[in-house]
Amino acid sequence: MTHFQGTLLIAVGVILLLVAVSALGAWLKLDKADGHPHPLIDNLNLRIQAWWVMTVTISLALLAGRIGVIVLFAFVSFTALREFLTIAPTRRGDHQALVMAFFVVLPFQYFLVGVEWHGMYSVFIPAYAFLFLPILSAVKSDTRNFMERTGTIQWALMVTVFCISHVPALLNLRIPGYEGRHVFLIVFLVLIVQSGDILHHVCSGICGKHQIAPQVSPNKTVEGFIGGIAAAVVLGMLLSWMTPFSVTEAALVSLATTLMGFFGGLVLSAMKRDRGVKDWGMLVEGYGGMLDRVASVCFAAPVYFHIVRHWWSVQAP
Amino acid sequence: MQSSEFLRRPVPEAASWALTRFTRLITGAQARWIGCAPVPVQRIYFGNHNSHADFALIWASLPAELRRVTRPVAGADYWEASALKRYIIHEVLHGVVIARSREEGGVEPVDIMAAAVHAGDSLIIFPEGTRNTTDDLLLPMKSGIYHLAQRCPQVDLVPVWMDNLGRLLPKGEIVPVPLLCSISFGAPLRLQPGEDKDAFLGRIRAALLGTRAAARPGEA
Lengths: 317, 220
Prior knowledge:
The complex is a heterodimer.
Chain A: H1 3-32, H2 39-64, H3 66-86, H4 95-114, H5 118-121, H6 124-138, H7 146-169, H8 183-207, H9 222-238, H10 247-275, H11 290-311
Helix pairs in contact in A: 1-2, 2-3, 3-4, 3-7, 4-6, 4-7, 6-7, 7-11, 8-9, 8-10, 8-11, 9-10, 10-11
Chain B: H1 3-8, H2 10-27, E1 31-33, E2 43-47, H3 53-61, H4 64-67, E3 70-75, H5 76-79, H6 83-92, E4 96-98, H7 109-118, E5 122-125, H8 144-151, E6 156-163, H9 165-168, E7 182-185, H10 197-215
């Protein structure tokens, strides 16, 4: 299959799927809900609208090429960081650390990804931001909850900037025989993780009985977990043609990716619970914030990146 | 923006439009009308005060037709200090500027505020009197709002609770961090016949905290 045919196939596939679910949503609204407000069906329709927006945005970014992808994920990071720090227990003394996080650390991380400085974007936040930001807070000599405050700022940067920046970093990998098709690595990751999320939701809704962590998220069930992961692995095998993986390899990569995605959603739910909020933001009315949508991608992206980098790419000299 | 108004005063109207957009963008705040609706009736909005941006946020959260007849009450010591601030408070925000301490000017602040209300305008006031930089949710209420309510007993007082603005731009900092803010409008109240100052200020305080609680149902 050529690059062009592959692109066409995936574009037509995704659009047909979206048209189909949009039609289903409209039919449910008219037939089952009689056009009246209905929490479940209205929520589904909001989700479908959000998928359209996501699909169009990601497609435009991919068409714009490398810079488009980097700018898109920098924006995703910015929005997610904003949501995370909004409910973080920071104090007046952390103001300069927060300014640095938003206006220096975030842009610089994406700059490093842009110039392909792998050695630096892998350690910049875990090492240098980690050491430098607490200094800014400490010199303000406000020690109340200091450990919790600095820990939260570092965690926010790790999950929303460091982890998410591994998605555009996929474009930096050098894979022999795969030149010019790197965007498919991103398409594959996003499709697998998002389908895992959706199918988990569907399976939980249909036959979910045994909750995994009821205190954290009542919607996450063993049945949804198995169904979501099985479906994502099958989808990964069907889509292996767009990746450098064989069918078996695609199954294993999809397994690792959806597992991380699932637990990412669980960890970020635990954080929301701790701070007493239901959603991370109001990006889409009734459908949570950016971080609610990308929680699973955050956890999946670095692991996926390192798997591909370790077993498929040629290390830069 | 009304076109006739825009043609008459293009610069202040453009500045007002830009300030509204900028405030909404940087705070990411969506107004939540919990205890009342954004309808064009005369009101005195009273809010918690953490930041200079408080004015701008309440003001920017009002629909345009309400914003045109709503005037923030501002301290002369800060807002009359430079030509730019004077321009913003008088021409853009249509503020009611009062001397914060009685010694500063001859006219009683409450007379100036009452005059604006009697002229038909709505007001934005901060009953704590100054910005709250402590860890407490609210400072003690000053008596100004009681005297104002005595003079205008027929006007609804609407509590406004704002979250996170103090973190967005703390006192003394220059660069704001783009944290998400929230703004909620609570249920109106009025001075009851025969109600004394302490009881009324207690209700004002309770109304602000009640609006805060109503805006976050998830918390115990």
